[in-house]
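Notebook, p. 212. Picked up where the previous page left off. The plan for this session was modest: take the two constructs that came back from the sequencing core last week, fold each one, and keep the raw output in the notebook itself so nobody has to go hunting through shared drives later. Recording the first one now, exactly as returned: residue sequence, then the structure token string.
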Amino acid sequence: MARTDRQRLWLRWVAANALGELVGLGATFAVIPPAFLWLEGQPGGVTAFILFIVAVASGAIEATIVGLAQWWAMHPWFPTIARRTWWLATLAGALLAYILGYLPSTLMNMGEQATNTAVSEPPQAVVLLLAAGLGAVAGAVLSFAQWLAMRRTIARAGWWIPANMLAWLAGMPVIFWGIDAAQQGQPIIQSILLFATSLLLAGAVVGAIHGLFLVMLASENRAATA
């Protein structure tokens, strides 16, 4: 596999992930505030539970946009993976990751509202460290179904899971930083731009890292079939 071919795959992959996360994750987060306003006045436990369902279901938006963007980027090098297969694998991983990701905060909110006690937020450094750990776990969950889709036709596809763990370990803190930066009292347009930038950057970071592994798999796959 020529160097220019490897660079082309990597650049396509990084762009697909950056734009996919910007649009997909941005749309996912945009669903939550209207749902919260709609549920205003409902009992606390009911609100937290319905918001959990809405948040998890909204993961289908991100999974669809990112999954299809990823498939477009990789398809010329991995023609044996069908678009529907990759989309379903991405969807399954994303929904499970959203369940595991939102469940702890949902239970904490329900406990807060039941006891009328507020839980103090830890320092930002601790939040970012926890986000990195969450990213590593989420990366494993997100990529497992994708690995199942890859392993039948791609040699050494097992690298895909640690690749995603490493990628999301680096990318998740960027998203959490963006959420915090967008809530510092600045004008709404500035908040939106800050958050959008963090999503674009997170997608680029994630894509850049597991894109290197994807290029490696493509090179080995091309060599094996040559």
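Okay, moving on. Second construct, recorded in the same format:
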Amino acid sequence: MEITDRVESIIAPVLGDMGYDIVRVRLSGGNRPNLQIMAERRDQMPMTVDNCAEISRTVSAMLDVEDPIPDNYVLEVSSPGIDRPLVRPGDFERFAGLEAKVELRRAIDGRRRFRGRLVGIDDGVVRLETADGEATLPFEEIGNAKLVITDDLLAADESAAATNEGQA
């Protein structure tokens, strides 16, 4: 099991109980690695600095006890942001209709990079409407994917914030 998978398995249940979902866990760097925990609120309200601080304190205590990373590291807790990464199959369904950039681990039909409107995901295949027509991309071949900041994304974000404020 990779270190990031181990970290996620340690912290996910507690963060879930706190009302957060993990978007991504990433370990990068050399002499003093950076452990990035990207999280979002389950109620879809915007993440605040206080939310990140709460997660940071909790995760730090848990990782001090479990010690899954043998060396010293820097812990960074952040929100996914408006141009969030798409990392789980459900992300491709949740954000259908919005524009995304997708980079594959290896080329399919001579291409690794795609940009277009997300159609969704069916049976492990992400569907993306590009300028050249619909691209079907195997989810397991996606190396990186993220939303692209467009007027549609900004409008969707504003609409979600207004809806969430009305529910608060």
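Notes on construct two before I forget. The chain has four helices and eight strands.
Flagging for discussion at group meeting.
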